[in-house]
Specification:
This is Receptor-like protein EIX2. It contains 9 helices and 59 strands. By secondary structure, it is of the alpha/beta class.
Length: 928
């Protein structure tokens, strides 16, 4: 709300200036006019014609025409005291501040065409049409006809095209606001040089990337006090001159250049006028190098300083201690390192301190507790350590937001501690709570809207009072602890559009009701039991993320998916659910991720799922599903993961699967699938790419940010982030892939009834790291082209009827860590001089006609040659010769074998590393 207050104050000042001799404070602020003022008829008619061209479904201009006098009774219209001319037209809707957090398209309250009759208002000097949309192609040119304008606000109006140079005709402008028009651009800013009285300029979101002279033009504005060019595509190609005119009579106090591509070359330009700046925001830019203390140490009037999301290095300098007036300090998301060396007692006015996502280390100074005006303290995502006690928060009675998360803090708060503050937001994720008991002091906090104490080492029964802690709660995260207890009816305990994460704990008991307007619900990895029928009682249409996996739930899936049509993530894997998958599940057409694996579902895959065109992950493995693989699966163009493992699917592999160009994992193993392997599988182009075109993590696309408003009107948010994970059988073991799932490319068709040859086309899938065709009835030879699969880490062709020799090209697969060719009809010598000899003999057994190392069976010609007898007369000389030759042979042979052994060891070390990596991922996912 600080931004809204700033705009309100600005309007009061500007309107007062514009009004001159009358007490005009705008239509929204209550205006007193002389009763003698009457509306000029020509201007009254112009306003009515203007209204006729607008769509006003909300009736915001219903007062227009109700009386003859437009000056005192018509909304948004004001006239001068002297002659009665309309001088002010303010049609902006009420409560627009909430829209200013983004430049997303808005719903316009008023829209239509601007009637040229409005040009009759020749004396108008104040025009606010913000949040109104006009579809005139020449709208901006029409606006430039109001040459007397001193205040012009066209922000968030959906304007497009190029700002005309005729804007230079508005030479009387004091304030120009074009924010939020993201389809608007300015190829140059020369017209600004014709606005000498301009004090306030805001063009946030307007494309200024082609205006390479922006800095020089701004330098020519002698009266400028407020400059906001956020997210305009600005850059600095060459070192700029002084940013503001040396002879300027006014000094810049407000500067917002955030979210551009500005480099540290901007700092010398700020130096001359640093002492006049009150507000400076250079966040989300490309600032690099040392912290700009030489510039900022003179900015002693600063109240707001934001340099977050840059690449600044080194610790906050002690020069910041000179900022006696500083209220907001945001240095988050830089590369700042070292200890926090500020003596906070010298910043008595500080209200917000944000140092998150840096490389700060050491302890948090106790002096932070002396900041009696502090409202926000965020030092999250650093390398800070030490013990935090109530002494760190001793005098922070106004604190509303506290974030210690993702550090190595130990929290030691007395169980009897009663804080002097009432928090809105508390984040303690990954902090260790000493004693492992549930924090008793939380019951004193009655205003909490955001609470995250995940991964805090709590091993305790959740107290009953906790569920009544705050009826303002919008987000709750207790995940990754060992909290025991049951969850009561929470249907009336949250407000807004809440998110709840209780995953990875020891909660038990049946599932009760949850808020009907919930957006995210994660109860996975607990011991909840009972049915999931509670989903139907919720009747929620806002739920987009539901994870009930790894519990003890039983019964059938409910048939109420119409009410869950916003669902994006559905995970009910690893439970005891049974029955058929209801056909109505296809009504959740926004779903991206579907996990129903390791249950006892029967029947066929519902045909209705074919309507879920956004599906990226389908995992229904380890159930008892029957029927053939439906052809609609091949029409799901975004599908990346398809796991149908360990079911009773029959029939052949549908050729439609070849249309899944984005598919990275195909697991059809352990079914009753017959027929030949389709040759067209090489059309799965994602498997043919050695580097994934996607992110390493599947699931970030499901992250959603929910904005809410605290009791004081300030904005807050929580992020619902889903990182997918899938159990894959690679290297003869089950590995859970999560954060690297997007990099995995594997095909498993094992343990079916497949027949025919191994299609040579499969060797075009050069990105595969795992290929398993074992346990089928495949015949023919191993394709010589198999050497093209250079990324293969695991290859299993065992338990088939393959014949012929092992192709020598197999030795070119240098990344191969697991190999199994056993139980076939392979023959001939195992290629020698390669890493193949490093595998266990079990990889080649049950091939009667196969020979060579590592098998004990020798190949013809491998018998040891007879050594002829040596004449006694030359025995000593011959012994010396044999001894010398033997030593040479041993040295030479050992060199070759050493290289071979090194190669084998490297590959086995690599394989062991991958195994250990997978095991660590498994442990992290399962919380073991």
């Amino acid at each position: 709300m600080g931004g809204c207050f700033h705009e309100l104050l600005l309007k009061l000042v500007l309107v007062s200036i514009i009004a001159g001799t009358v007490s005009v404070l705008g239509s929204s602020f209550g205006t007193n006019y002389s009763n003698n003022i009457r509306c000029i008829q020509k201007e009254r008619q112009a306003l009515l014609k203007f209204k006729q061209g607008l769509e006003d479904e909300g009736g915001s201009l219903s007062s227009w025409g109700s009386t003859e006098d437009c000056c005192t009774s018509w909304k948004g219209v004001r006239c001068s005291n002297s002659r009665g001319h309309v001088v002010m037209l303010d049609l902006h809707p009420e409560e627009t501040c909430s829209y200013e957090f983004s430049f997303e398209p808005q719903t316009y309250i008023l829209s239509g065409r601007m009637n040229t009759a409005l040009l009759e208002l020749k004396y108008m000097n104040y025009l606010d049409l913000s949040f109104l949309y006009f579809n005139n192609t020449n709208f901006l040119e029409l606006i430039t006809s109001f040459s007397n304008l001193r205040y012009l606000n066209l922000s968030y109006g959906g304007l497009s095209g190029t700002i005309p140079n005729q804007f230079g005709n508005l030479s009387n402008l004091i304030s120009l606001d074009l924010r939020g028009n993201t389809d608007l651009e300015a190829k140059n800013l020369d017209w600004l040089s014709h606005l000498p009285s301009l004090r306030h300029l805001a063009m946030d979101g307007v494309n200024l990337s082609k205006a390479v002279d922006w800095l020089q033009v701004v330098n020519m504005l002698p009266s400028l006090q407020h400059l906001s060019l956020r997210e305009c595509g600005l850059s600095i190609v060459t070192p700029p001159p002084t940013l503001f005119n040396i002879n300027s009579s006014a000094s810049l106090s407000f500067l917002d250049l955030s979210d551009n591509q500005i480099t540290s070359m901007i700092f010398p330009s700020l130096l001359r006028h640093a002492n006049s700046l009150v507000f400076l925001d250079l966040s989300f830019n490309d600032l690099r190098g040392s912290f700009p203390h030489h510039t900022l140490e003179k900015a002693i009037s600063l109240v707001h300083l934001d340099l977050s999301y840059n690449h600044l290095e080194r610790i906050v300098p002690k020069s910041l201690e000179n900022f006696q007036s500083l209220q907001v300090l945001n240095l988050s998301s830089n590369n700042l390192s070292g200890e926090v060396l500020i003596d906070f007692a010298k910043l008595p006015s500080l209200k917000e301190l944000r140092l998150s996502n840096n490389h700060l280390n050491g302890n948090l100074p106790l002096s932070v507790g002396k900041l009696s005006k502090l409202e926000v303290l965020d030092v999250s995502s650093n390398s800070l350590d030490g013990t935090i006690t109530q002494a760190h928060l001793l005098n922070c009675s106004l604190l509303k937001e506290l974030d210690f998360s993702y550090n190595s803090f130990s929290l030691n708060f007395s169980s009897a501690w009663v804080p002097t503050f009432q928090l809105d937001t508390l984040r303690l994720s990954s902090c260790r709570i000493l004693g492992s008991a549930f924090p008793q002091w939380l019951q004193t906090q009655k205003n909490l809207s955001y609470l995250d104490i995940s991964n805090a080492g709590i091993s305790d029964i959740i107290p009953e009072w906790f569920w009544d802690i705050s009826y303002k709660l919008r987000y709750l995260n207790l995940s990754y602890n060992q909290i025991k207890g049951t969850v009561p009816d929470l249907s009336s305990r949250f407000v807004g559009f809440p998110g709840i994460d209780l995953s990875h704990n020891k909660f038990s008991g049946p599932l009760s009701a949850f808020p009907s307007n919930i957006t995210t619900l994660n109860l996975s990895n607990n011991s909840f039991h009972g049915s999931v029928s509670f989903l139907c009682t919720m009747s929620t249409v806002t739920l987009n993320y539901l994870d009930l996996s790894n519990n003890l739930l039983f019964g059938s899936l409910p048939d109420c998916w119409t009410a869950l049509d916003k669902l994006v993530v559905l995970n009910m894997a690893n439970n005891n659910l049974s029955g058929t998958i209801p056909n109505s599940i296809g009504l959740a057409q926004r779903i991206n991720t579907l996990h129903l694996g390791n249950n006892s579902f029967v029947g066929e895959l519902p045909y209705s799922l074919g309507e879920c065109k956004r599906l990226e992950v389908i995992d229904v493995g380890e159930n008892r599903l029957t029927g053939s693989i439906p052809a609609w699966v091949g029409e799901t163009e975004y599908l990346r993961i398809l796991v149908l493992r360990s079911n009773l699917f029959s029939g052949s592999i549908p050729p439609e699967l070849c249309h899944l160009t984005s598919l990275q994992v195909l697991d059809l193993s352990h079914n009753k699938i017959s027929g030949a392997i389709p040759q067209c599988l090489n059309n799965i182009t994602s498997m043919a790419e050695q580097h994934s075109p996607f992110d390493a993590t599947i699931g970030y696309s499901y992250a959603s940010t929910y904005i809410y408003y605290n009791a004081d009107g300030s904005a807050g948010y929580y992020v619902s982030e889903y990182i997918d994970n899938v159990l894959l059988i690679l290297k003869k073991m089950g590995l859970v892939y999560s954060k690297n799932l997007g990099l995995v490319k594997a095909m498993d068709l094992s343990s079916n009834n497949l027949t025919g040859y191994i299609p040579v086309e499969l060797t075009n899938l050069t990105g595969l790291i795992g290929l398993n065709l074992s346990g089928n009835w495949l015949t023919g030879t191993i394709p010589q082209e198999i050497s093209k699969l250079k990324q293969l880490d695991s290859l299993d062709l065992s338990r088939n009827q393959l014949s012929g020799g092992i192709p020598s090209s197999l030795s070119h697969l240098t990344h191969l860590g697991t190999l199994d060719l056993s139980d076939n009809n392979l023959s001939g010598r195992i290629p020698t001089g390669t890493q193949l000899q490093g595998f266990n003999k079990s990889a080649f057994e049950e091939n009667p006609d196969l020979c060579g190392v590592p098998l004990p069976k020798k190949c013809p010609g491998d018998e040891e040659p007879d050594i002829p007898e040596v004449a006694n007369t030359n025995i000593e000389h011959s012994w010396f010769c044999y001894q010398s030759a033997g030593i040479g042979f041993i040295l030479s042979f050992s060199g070759v074998c050493g290289l071979l052994l090194l190669d084998v060891c490297w590959n086995h070390s690599y394989a062991q590393y991958i195994d250990e990596l997978g095991a660590r991922i498994h442990v992290r996912i399962t919380g073991g």
